[in-house]
Design brief:
By secondary structure, this protein is an alpha+beta fold. Helix content is about 20%, strand content about 45%. The chain is built from three helices and twelve strands. Strands 1-2-3-12-11 form a five-stranded antiparallel β-sheet. The chain has a four-stranded antiparallel β-sheet with strand order 4-5-6-9. A hairpin with a 2-residue loop joins β7 (about 155-160) and β8.
Length: about 230
């Protein structure tokens, strides 16, 4: 009887010790972390990044001047100097406003030149539209050898000397390829266009152009750009 009680007591004691060890192990796992982790839980400590300098206003900023680290303007339509731009997005950095002027240290403008604006410049009822493979097409009626011919010229739009330029790579007059090739040199000048984007602040330089379904999407950039006369 005594032996049985001793065994029961021993088993109970061993069980309690095991439970205690498990509890300690769980507690240790919760309050500790793997070696070498340095507490990196994906959230940077509050002091991290404190030594990264923020954008600072220029030295000598006048009492009557206001400095903006960045400004953004979105406009559905901009009309100026007889030109129309759509979906205009301008981002300026380091903008200083004063009693006489507003100057952006850096300015980037993305704007779409509608096809009808370019077509009006080409003239004579021309049509400008998007074509395959990122190209643009000019459709117009030209006179050659005393006859009127409907011409479809297709080519890429590039940036040359600050202008949007389409140089036809193919010219179709609706007849045999031999006829199109023969007339290409005659009508090429009539279906080539150069368009200068107007109405934007001076100092912006045309950088890139992409042909889209709604027009020619242009990117312009400049430094020390005066935003008003």
């Amino acid at each position: 009887m005594t032996t049985t009680r001793a065994k029961d007591w021993l088993i109970g004691a061993v069980g309690m010790i095991l439970l205690l060890l498990v509890a300690v192990a769980i507690l240790w796992w919760v309050v500790s972390e793997p070696a070498g982790s340095d507490g990196d839980d994906g959230v940077p400590p509050a002091s991290q990044g404190a030594d990264v300098p923020a954008a600072a206003p220029p030295a000598g900023l006048g009492d009557d001047e206001v400095w903006f680290a960045s400004l953004r303007l979105d406009a559905e339509t901009v009309v100026a100097s007889g030109s129309t731009l759509r979906d205009v997005r301008a981002v300026g950095g380091g903008v200083v406003t004063g009693p006489d002027d507003v100057v952006a240290a850096r300015l980037t403008v993305d704007a779409t030149v509608p096809f009808d604006v370019v077509a009006e410049e080409v003239g004579d009822g021309s049509e400008v539209r998007a074509a395959q493979d990122g190209q643009a097409a000019v459709v117009r009626t030209v006179e050659a050898f005393g006859r009127e011919i409907r011409v479809v010229a297709t080519g890429t739009v590039d940036v040359e000397n600050g202008r949007l330029v389409l140089e036809p790579r193919s010219i179709d007059v609706g007849g045999p390829d031999v006829l199109s090739s023969a007339l290409a040199a005659v009508v090429r000048g009539s279906v080539t266009f150069e368009h200068e984007i107007e109405g934007l602040p001076e100092g912006l330089v045309l950088q890139d152009v992409v042909v889209r379904e709604d027009g020619l999407r242009a990117t312009l950039e400049g430094t020390d750009v005066a935003l008003q006369p």
